[in-house]
Amino acid sequence: MRRKILALTGVVALLTTAACGGGDAAEKDGLTTLKIGSMPVVDTAALHLGVDQGYFEDLGIELDITNVQGGAEAIPGVVSGDFDIAFSNVTSLIVAREKDLPLKIINNAVASTGKEGKDFGGVVVPEGSSITGAKDLAGKKVAVNTLQNIGDTTVRNSVRKAGGDPEDIEFVEMAFPDMPAAVEKKQVDAAWVVEPFLTMALNDGATEVASNFVDTHESLSVAVYFTSEKFLAENPELAKSFTTAMSESQAYAQSHPEEVRRILTTYTKMDENLIEQIRLPNYPSQKDTESAQVLGELMKEDGLIDSEPNLDELYQ
Amino acid sequence: MTRTANTSPDAAVGAGANRALLGAAGVAGLLVLWEALPRIGAADPRYLPPASEVAITLGGRLGGATFWAAVGDTVAAWALGLAIAFAAAVVLGFLIGSAPRVRAFTTSTVEFLRPIPSVALIPLAILLYGTDIRSTLLLVVYAAFWQIYIQVLYGVADVDPVADQTARCYGLGRMARIRYVVWPSALPYLMTGLRLGAAVALVLTVTAQLVIGSPGLGQEIAVARSSGALDEVYALIVATGALGVLVNTGIRALERRALRWHSSVRGEAL
């Protein structure tokens, strides 16, 4: 988080003092290359599947996909023009927009499945824990991948909804890959994990006690694809083509789970058995401002942002 | 025989073979320990897979193009970064080192900049160059430069004053003195700097790829980690270690060639 704040502050400083680098799209073999900042996770399966199916090529676009470690790089990357389009979670973008970074969400990426206990993210506790529901998380030590982000906001909401007091939960920052072991060794009382680590933790004997995304909204948009206002203004046709192809890819991923599992073997290093077991997210084709509104209100309650998010500005 | 070990070729070869044997035994010991810990239950095999399993995973990767592309990216970034740092450090080191006033003037700045850890520059690198190879180079050059620069300064300062005065008496110009007096005295220091810089450059190359996500072994490790593939993570770490050994061996060979005439090498390498 500190890195994120530092990076964001830096971007703001850069924006106010100097002009940004150009994000001009390059043309080659009749195809226009778009630079995409992505992450090698389950969430971006539709993007890779869309390339595989030729949806982008059909519209004259070639994707140059770079793996980044998270929003802390994706957001400055898009602002500076290193990436034309990137992948990030909705919370980070709402925060960035509140800091007046000129970003626009153009496509949905992943959303909650809306099924309690069958979502791609959830809160797990060690075997034999006294915690049996979200309410019991009050006053406990809970691991999230980034403090002050979508994890702690939605977990607090789950606790509140179950009638518990979210105020004195002690959130600790921990990388997702470290969580299954930390839960098993009881270094934390609970952890919010996403796939494939959710399945790994459950296989190791952990128990799922809350579906924090579902509790927030049944179709909660968790992550999205976004670009900069500058790119949109300079390449309106290109952005439109990307949106069309991306929506097609999302629809294809949504209706072909076996294809999603196949494409995961190509850009991640997940074990094939694990890929068969994990729960897939929803890959919606449509943007979902309604669920973002709910998330924004929770963020305001948590003090992540000062005022209601301006979603008309954030969404294209 | 033992008394003249330093000068006898047979003894030198014997000592070299002995050292290699000891080194191999050390590695073997580590591997046995690594294999045993998860097997006897001292470590959880899910989080520390036995050495043999990791070796099989690594063996499988050695046949794939992705692995070698990653190794290529890492070696390219390392070599380029080290070359830039080396060139800059040698030029600046000789210029500033041979001008005592300038050296005194810059010492405090150098001492201020030198301890800044290269990883602290990661946010800056991302802002400036994104995930481009240039952000890796920024970190690598910054870290390796100081290692070499400081050695060059010491080397230049270590020139024997009598030799220098003699050269002056014989009317050697500035360039000639650098070539025949300063360069030979500084060379051993320079090679030490290169060796230190090479190791640091490799560490920073992999770190940058791991944290920033520029292509290479580091990024492969990051992807394996976010896929929960621990076997693969360990296999890639072992590959990175092996690359480090190769780099060190290569630089030492280079050092022996460049300093063939120097007493520190002459004694043992004959």
From TrEMBL, chain A:
GO terms for cellular component: periplasmic space. It is found in: Periplasm. Keywords: Signal. Residues 1-21 form the signal peptide. Coiled coil: none annotated. Pfam families: NMT1 (PF09084). Belongs to the bacterial solute-binding protein SsuA/TauA family. The lineage of its organism: Bacteria, Bacillati, Actinomycetota, Actinomycetes, Streptosporangiales. Residues 45-259 form the SsuA/THI5-like domain. This is NitT/TauT family transport system substrate-binding protein. It comes from Nocardiopsis mwathae. InterPro entries: SsuA/THI5.
UniProtKB/TrEMBL annotation, chain B:
This is ABC-type nitrate/sulfonate/bicarbonate transport system permease component. GO terms for biological process: cellular response to sulfur starvation; transmembrane transport. It is a multi-pass membrane protein. SUPFAM superfamilies: MetI-like. Gene3D superfamilies: MetI-like. Residues 71-255 form the ABC transmembrane type-1 domain. The keyword Transmembrane helix applies. GO terms for cellular component: plasma membrane. It is found in: Cell membrane. InterPro entries: MetI-like, MetI-like_sf. Keywords: Cell membrane, Membrane, Transmembrane, Transmembrane helix, Transport. Signal peptide: none annotated. Belongs to the binding-protein-dependent transport system permease family. It holds the Pfam family BPD_transp_1. The keyword Hydrolase does not apply. The chain crosses the membrane at residues 20-42, 77-100, 112-131, 137-159, 180-213, 233-254.
